[in-house]
Amino acid sequence: MEKRKKRKYTNTKRMRLPGTYVAGFLQTFDQRSVLFSELNGAFVEILDDLGGTAALSHLQRGLVERYVFVEFMVRNLERRMLQDEALARRLFRRWRTAAGTQLSLAKTLGLERRVKESQHTLTAYVSRKQA
Q: Please, what is the angle between helix 34-49 and helix 58-83, to 10°?
């Protein structure tokens, strides 16, 4: 019986946040990773807060994706700044710019929650049941 060589598994999917935003970056992640779960969770939650995917234009969905990227970039910068004071001084300008971008995107998308329009109304349900 011939022994098979063990092949090293090489994951081609992303496990870390990219250095710069690229549209569709969520699809490049390994969906089993904790980071993907957090990013996708934030993305879906914001979409729901804005009334659901069907209520948003393509442009708004793109802004939500960009917002999620910037939000996690700000978190990462804050974490790194807290770990090293010398590094904090060098990263402060990037953090300030990213935090300003995050705020601008939030204002553009709207800070208030919107009710998701239901396609199923009570009267439609009752009329279906009576039929």
A: 130
Contact 55, 117 (CB under 8 A): yes
Tokens coding 59? 């442009």
Domain parsing of the chain, residue ranges:
25-111
| pLDDT (tens digit per residue) in 15-73 | 778 888 889 888 888 888 898 999 999 999 999 999 998 889 999 999 999 999 999 99
Q: How far apart are CA 24 and CA 36, in angstroms?
A: 13
- Note whether 62 and 106 are within 8 A (CB): no
Amino acid making up residue 45: E
> Is the Cβ–Cβ distance between 80 and 24 less than 8 Å?
no
